[in-house]
Amino acid sequence: VNDLGRREFLRRLTAAGLTAAGGWWLAGCGPDTLSPTPTTGPSTAPTRTILGEQTAQPPPASAEPTASAAPPTALPMASYPHLAVARGGEPQALMRRALAALGGMERFVHSGDDVIIKPNICVGYHTYEYAATTNPWVVAELVRMCLEASAGRVRVMDQPFSSGPEEAYKVSGIQEQVEAAGGQMEIMSSFKFTRSAIPLGRDLKECQLYEDALTCDVLINVPVAKDHSLARLTLGMKNLMGLIRDRPSMHRNLGQRLADLASRFQPTLTVVDAVRILTAHGPTGGNLGDVRQLDTVIVSPDIVSADAYAATLFGLRPEELSYVRAATDMGLGRSDLANLQVEELSLG
Amino acid sequence: LANRAAAPKLAARRWRTLRPWTQNAALLLFVMLFVWSRRGGWPAMLVNLPMRVDPLAMLAHALSARIFLASSALALLTVLMTVLLGRVWCGWLCPLGTILDHSSRLLPASRAAPPDGARRLKYLLLLAVLSLAMMGSLTLLTLDPLTLLFRALSASVWPAVDQAVTASQHALYDVPALRSAVSALDGVLRPKILPPEPGFYRLPWLYGGLLVGVIALNLWAPRFWCRFLCPLGGLLGWLSRVSWRRRQVNDQCIACGTCARVCPTGTVQAEGYASDPAECTMCLDCATACPVQAIDFPAKYELAGRQPYDPGRRQALVTVGGAAAAVALFGSDLARHRPHPHLLRPPGARESALLSKCIRCGECSRACPTSAIQPAISEAGLEGLWSPILVPRAGYCDYSCHACGLVCPVQAVPPLTLGDKRQQVMGKAYINRDRCLVWSDGIPCGVCEEMCPVPGKAIWLEEVETTGADGYAMGLQRPHMARERCIGCGLCEFRCPVVGEAAIRVYVSTD
Fold first, then answer.
1. Helix/strand number for chain B, H first, E second
2. Contacts of B105 in chain A (CB under 8 A)
3. How far does A63 lie from chain B, in Å, by closest CA?
4. Residue B389: phi, psi to the nearest 5?
């Protein structure tokens, strides 16, 4: 009886070993031939792009790296303003009206698109009233509009630096609103981060990036506007740090590195939630005394101008933000607000 | 007559087939309660149930803390069950016992069992546990089978499983055909079964090693642990001396010796085939193996006879004396007089009362979503072995969590509302300017300030103009403590980007 047991045990052990070895071998086959984000070459320069569909075609593989990888700097299609700001109303209405001014979600999301929405859910300490996390109704309205534009699926995610995603999604109120709107909350898996090249990066040349945020059809960046010591304010570009691993390495030369990240992700849309802004003790907050209710939503396909405009809500000039300076210098977008066509809507 | 004789045997056989099912179900339940005792899992008063039905832990706690908690009354059920049916806990329910039975099937014992005299060890260990508890120390509950298994699962097995799963996921995710499957499986596993971020423990091999050691003793004799060492087995065995149902050999016996051979605890004597109810786990193996119907489990009201291996008066006195000496030595440990600088306790736990309350079960450690709570190694002296401490480099006390106090079965970590828990000071952070990137190397950082969860921040940044390495003027933000606001949660220490010892560390609070 014991003999049989041992034999059976050995048989299973062998089977398990073979399975494991097979998996290992298969895995070994992967990276060279199938890596979704090649680490060299300009052919992967982002094509999902900010400023205008006219340059959205992939560059020819033979093109010179600098030429083909250069970001589009042309203005958006003439019929739409560069940036829209809606003030004085409920968050959903602000969101919908501001985007409508830019041509509505149908301009950015097409039938069957895989959409990722990246709000700021940095911690799970307080409700949205404390303005440490993005307003849930702004996020949910985005989800709804994407689905109305026949998106294939809409995922919402962030990587909180405390509390864990499960708790932070819940406490922020975002999970409840997103799921009610038909979107899905995704917990970001460690194996979906891949070391990827940042072809346009001036300081940050490669980084562990969330692969789905690179390969999805539409990436919508939805920061809440708030205070941050090192970056002064955390807005659209700073919010992209939730899509990378190895965040401590960002702190040296933060402004340039944030601009480098923006050059790689190139979100389709940046929505700055300024319904409530956190004016001090960010990014975590905790005092309602530090919160100001502005009932404002800023939308632009240009992350730089969205951040630049948001800076003015805090009484700052855009160039006072190191990442706005760096990104403008790289030609990722425009921060010369005076020269841009800005649509201001008052819902009040 | 034949029919009447066959009846008990059939009954025993039917019961015997139930036993592995019961055992496996109890083991599965134990593991499930373990898995979902993590914050966000099942209700706290449900997941800590195994500890609350453990009469050894509850009795020792009551003796040591000098309080009987209503929530530990559940252990009386185990006592009642034992008084009625003997050590059925050991044979039918104990998760460690089940693991030992499984390992005996896989790797049978290959040597002669130690002499019966060794059985007294578990009674002496029980006596040591209880006399230490009378003197206010629960250190020996580290050897309770449930705490031992739970700690091994929490600080060894699960982190290792997580590492293995994570490594496989990374490898398999590179295969395009498997991507959606790997992704879907991850959605099932995390965060409910495995944490979203891997947990890391100090000395993980130690707790797993201890469990492997207990299992390895099975090579010497089946259920070696249960026969010779288990203090809970000792307590239940002692209660079984008055048990109502117990094994008895009737006059049908043909003296074939089968029962003595199959008995997993070796308590059936080679001659006469009598057994000690204190050693019998009511497994019914003998009754099903008996070729005739010679073994019954009749109801009986009498005290079981003394066994040669029962501890004598002198041995008992030496054990109690040894326990007293141990308590005196514990007290003379410098670690009890001058606290270790990083002896950080879970929120609300008071150092003065903790060691006489903590049953070392590890529930708080498992509940902690960041793996910040870990078994103390040397920080609290030998007396405080494996009591809970916060290790900020492993994890931080999450500002949105109060799971540890809720799950503690004995209120050693008090149950607090989230609001109250946020006010608890676990320690105070200090900046080491020699290691700080900003202070020492002029590199912009400020992660500690960014992380600080306290409203108003316990760390503030001083704007200074200095000269950079390139000779140009540069602005820097140097961190300073506003220590009166610090609660010692350790998030700054956890996230400090300095490799090795963090440039900001939490120390025991002087207040």
1. 25, 8
2. 5
3. 28
4. -130, 160
Q: Which residues contact A136 (CB under 8 A, 6 or more apart)?
A: A128, A172, A173, A174, A176, A177, A178
Is A164 close to B369, i.e. CB distance below 8 A?
Answer: yes
Residue B213: how many other CB atoms lie within 10 Å = 10
What ipTM, to 2 d.p.?
Answer: 0.91
Cis? peptide before A283, omega within 30° of 0:
yes
> Are B195 and B371 in contact, with CB atoms under 8 Å apart?
yes
- Inform me whether the C-beta atom of residue B173 falls under 8 Å from chain A C-beta atoms: yes
Q: What's this model's pTM, rounded to 2 decimal places? A: 0.89
Pair B371, B395: CB distance under 8 Å: yes
Contact B175 A29 (CB under 8 A): yes
Query: CB A254 to CB B444 under 8 A?
Result: yes
Query: Is B490 in the A-facing interface, judged by CB distances under 8 Å?
Result: no
Which alpha helices (H) appear in B36-116, and where do they start and end? 44-47, 49-52, 55-65, 75-85, 88, 95-106
Residue B35 vs residues A52, A170, B25, B141, B149: alpha-carbon distances, Å: 50, 21, 15, 22, 13
Strands B459-467 and B428-431: unpaired
* SS3 label, residue B231: helix
Helix ranges, A77-191 (H): 91-101, 136-148, 164-171, 174-181
Enumerate the β-bridge partners of residue A298. Answer: A85, A272
What whole-number distance in Å separates Cα of residue B55 and Cα of residue B61? 10
With beta carbons under 8 A apart, name residues in chain B contacting A285. 455
Of B176, B461, B497, Cβ closest to residue A229 = B461
In order of A134, A177, B54, B324, the CA distances from A170 in angstroms are: 13, 10, 35, 51
Using an 8 Å Cβ cutoff, are B382 and B139 in contact?
A: yes
Are the beta carbons of B365 and B405 closer than 8 angstroms? no
Residues paired with A210 in a beta bridge: A193
CB contact under 8 Å between B398 and A164, yes or no, is: yes
Q: Report CB contact under 8 Å: A164, B399.
A: no
Residue B224 DSSP SS3: helix
Cβ within 8 Å of A, B 336-395: 369-370
Could you tell me the end-to-end alpha-carbon distance of chain A, in angstroms, rounded to an integer? 83
User: Cα separation of B15 and B283, whole Å?
Assistant: 9
In the three-class reduction of DSSP (H, G, I as helix; E, B as strand; rest coil), residue A296 is classed as strand
Is-cis flag, bond preceding B191, omega within 30?
yes
Q: Determine the distance in angstroms separating the CA of A284 from the nearest CA of chain B, rounded to an integer.
A: 6
Q: Yes or no: say if B56 and B122 are a contact pair by the CB < 8 Å rule.
A: no
Q: Which of residues 88-147 of B touch A (CB under 8 A)?
A: 105-106, 108
Residues making up chain A, counted from first to last: 348
Residues in chain B within 8 Å Cβ distance of A162: 396, 398-400, 451, 453, 491
Q: Show pLDDT as tens, one digit a residue, over chain B (511 residues).
A: 445 555 555 678 888 999 999 999 999 999 999 999 999 999 999 999 999 999 999 999 999 999 999 999 999 999 999 999 999 999 999 999 999 999 999 999 888 899 999 999 999 999 999 999 999 999 999 999 999 999 999 999 999 999 999 999 999 999 999 999 999 999 999 999 999 989 999 999 999 999 999 999 999 999 999 999 999 999 999 999 999 999 999 999 999 999 999 999 999 998 899 999 999 999 999 999 999 989 999 988 889 889 999 999 999 999 999 999 999 999 999 998 999 999 999 999 999 899 999 999 999 999 999 999 999 999 999 999 999 999 999 999 999 999 999 999 999 999 999 999 999 999 999 999 999 999 999 999 999 999 999 999 999 999 999 887 777 788 899 999 999 999 999 999 999 999 999 999 999 998 7
